[in-house]
Write a structure and sequence with these properties.
- This protein is an all-alpha fold and 339 residues long.
- The protein is built from ten helices and no strands.
- It has helices at residues 6-10, 27-67, 70-93, 101-126, 129-136, 138-164, 177-204, 213-245, 251-283, 288-320.
- The radius of gyration is 23 Å and the shape is globular.
- The two termini are 18 Å apart.
- The mean pLDDT is 88.
Length: 339
């Protein structure tokens, strides 16, 4: 918080309406409150509707039909089971209270639609890779793409899914809740991403009847391996979002730190999974899929340990101060992002 106004200091903190303090008193004041609330609500709906339109356009009508096919739906479900297991564990690890299923479900659905923003931005940025590669080389161009575009953009849109609905809800009443909702947003993002990958493969092979079981099984397995990363990265960013909710004066930098950490993990994974798994397949007598699985599990274990240490520290503080015996504050401090 900044320094108080000179009048406020001289008045020993006494609130003086429209001099050093403000609250809705007049009819115009109340109209202003309603107008602002309407703009905030309307902007959220605009974001959601735009995201839905983009996602539908990306998947396409034929893709949507494919997703509704029982076998394709089953493949998508199978591809997100490991990610679902991690998200479920994080909800279980929340020592404060079980988060309501309704908020979790809405966060999941919002993540599936705002993923379209990331797809558009990544596609546009990918178009400029050639120019960067000509100037600095392929490796630098790819690193820039992963660290400055894919990582920050995808982690931001997943956090947006939390911010749109769960974050301002009074049931988001603990720092650790941010990790839970972030994980669920990561699960939603992974689900729509996997659905797009699987339907793209089917369409490229000429339809479901022409698709080989081996190819479908391979893409499902590879997406199942990659999915937990989305949950872990966004759970980290979500934890910092939760921390920001209860530290209004430093909310911006706290959110930025969470996004930076998540984006660096994300970008590093994207940049190293190819060379790292290749090195393993060369050094070990294993198949390509096994080498990828070994590398991904190893990398995600490091990320998971980082998140585990955050949650463990929170839990220790929760137990040390016997926070479970303290009645929850129904009005957590709002950040500058809140109406």
């Amino acid at each position: 918080m900044g320094e108080p106004d000179p009048v406020e200091r001289a008045a020993d903190g006494e609130a003086i309406y429209e001099v050093t303090d403000w609250e809705p008193r007049s009819r115009l004041d109340r109209i202003a409150v309603q107008v602002y609330a309407g703009v905030v609500t309307g902007s959220k709906w605009l974001v959601v509707l735009t995201a839905i339109a983009i996602t539908v356009a990306i998947v396409g009508i034929s893709g949507l039909d494919l997703v509704l096919e029982p076998i394709v739906s089953w493949l998508v479900v199978m591809s997100v089971l490991p990610a679902l297991a991690i998200a479920a564990y994080l909800r279980y690890a929340d020592v404060t209270s079980g988060e309501p299923i309704g908020l979790l479900a809405i966060t999941f659905l919002l993540a599936t639609v705002v993923a379209g923003f990331a797809a558009v931005i990544n596609t546009v940025a990918r178009g400029g890779l050639g120019v960067v590669a000509e100037q600095f080389g392929d490796v630098v161009a790819i690193a820039i793409f992963f660290y400055l575009v894919v990582g920050p953009v995808e982690e931001s849109v997943k956090l947006l899914a939390v911010r749109l609905y769960a974050y301002p809800d009074e049931r988001f009443d603990a720092v650790i809740d941010g990790a839970v909702y972030g994980a669920v947003a990561g699960l939603g993002f992974a689900t729509i991403e996997n659905a797009i990958y699987i339907t793209d493969l089917i369409q490229s092979e000429g339809g479901l009847a022409s698709s080989s079981q081996g190819d479908l099984g391979g893409i499902t397995a590879s997406r199942a391996i990659a999915g937990p990363g989305h949950v872990l990265y966004s759970a980290i960013a979500g934890y910092y979002l939760g921390l920001a909710k209860f530290n209004a004066d430093r909310a911006g930098p706290i959110i930025a730190k969470g996004l930076i950490v998540a984006a660096v993990f994300h970008g590093t994974y994207n940049l190293t999974v190819g060379p790292g798994s290749n090195a393993l397949s060369t050094a070990l007598p294993v198949s390509r899929l096994v080498s990828v699985a070994l590398y991904v599990i190893g990398f995600q274990s490091i990320v998971g340990y980082y998140l585990y240490r955050k949650l463990r520290r929170y839990r220790r503080a929760y137990d040390e101060y016997d926070a479970g015996a303290t009645p929850p504050d129904p009005t957590p401090e709002l950040t500058e992002f809140d109406p």
